[in-house]
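note to self — DONT lose this again. spent like an hour looking for the file last time. sequence + predicted structure for the chain T wanted, 208 res
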Amino acid sequence: MSRLAVLGASGHGKVVADTAECCGWDTIEFFDDAWPGLLRNGVWNVVGNTERLLGAVHEFEGVVVAIGNNRVRQAKLDQLKAAGATLVTLRHPDSTVSRYATLGEGSVVFAGAVVNADARVGSGAILNTGCSVDHDCLLGSCVHISPGARLAGGVCVQDLSWIGIGACVRQLVSIGSQAMVGAGAVVVRDVPDKVTVVGVPARLSDGS
């Protein structure tokens, strides 16, 4: 491992970079569309924007997108892949990932996260600090499982959906695409596409 490019110089990006250092990456450089107005992200340098990174992907042994917005993250991953970038998956050494689980390219697994046997995680996913994804779960591309969220066995979370901090999803429940589960919600029945659910038990939000 040597040079890693991180696209997205935010607080989330700091955690991605810290995870990358724990994984053994020697040099980490940030790219962000706020550059050149933004030159630092914590201890790391911001050296360019998306356009500059797209022209320099072959200078890096790996690239990862550190953008929390699922749609934007997917779009950036598609751009980078088309440009020939080597998209890497980062797994913090203090996470627990079963040898029988699979992680898609460009996904990040933060400290304290648990991914159990036969769980399948799509590309560009964020498995945030201390979350758990139990056996036989199926996660689509560019989902975000927030800190402390819990998915019981056999849960399906489709593309671009977001499970909020501290939320819990009962076994065998299906979460549709582009859905959002609010912080602390308890989901006991299937959730349709493109809605927000909140509460205990989780119900459609008035804003959905």
